[in-house]
Amino acid sequence: MNSKTFGQVLGAVGIAIVLSSPILLLFGAAGTNFVLWQAIIGILLAGAYVAMDPGQVGRMLSGKGTFFAATAGGLGLVLVAVVAVANYLGAAKFPKTWDLTKNKIFTLAPDTAKTLHNLTQEVHAVAFYTPTDRDYGSVKDLLERYKDAGGTKFSYEFDDPDKSPGKVRRFNIKKDSGPALVVTMGKQQDKVQSVSEEGLTNAIVKISHGGEKKIYFTSGHGEVDIKDTGAHGYSQVVKALENEGIQSDTINLLDVKEIPHDAEAVIVAGPQKKLLDPEVKMLTDYLKVGGHVVVELDPQVDSGLDGLLKDYGIQANNDEIIDPLSRLAGTNLDVPVIGQYAEHAITKDFNEATLFPQTRSLTALSEPDVSRPVALATTNPSAWGETDFAQLAQGRASPEGMVRGSLAVAIAASKTLPAGRADDRSNETRLVVFGDSNFPNNRWGSVGPGNQDLFMNTVSWMAGDTDRITIRPRSRDASHLTMSQQQMTLVQFFSIDVLPVTLLAVGIAIWRVRRSK
Amino acid sequence: MRNAIAIARKELSIYFTTPTAYAVFCGMTFIAGMMFLAALGYFQRMSMQFLSFQQPQLLDHLNLTDMVVYPLLRNIGVIFLFMTPFLSMRLVADEKRSRTFELLMTSPIRPFEIMLGKYLAALGLMAVAVGLLALFPLIVSFFGSAGTMMNSGGGSPIEWSTVISGLVGLFLVGAAMMAVGMFVSSLTESVVVSALVTFVILLVVWILNWQAGRLEGTARDVLDYLSMPTHLDAFAKGAPALKDLVYFLSFMILGPFFTERAIEAHRWA
Question: What pTM was computed for the model?
Answer without folding.
Answer: 0.72
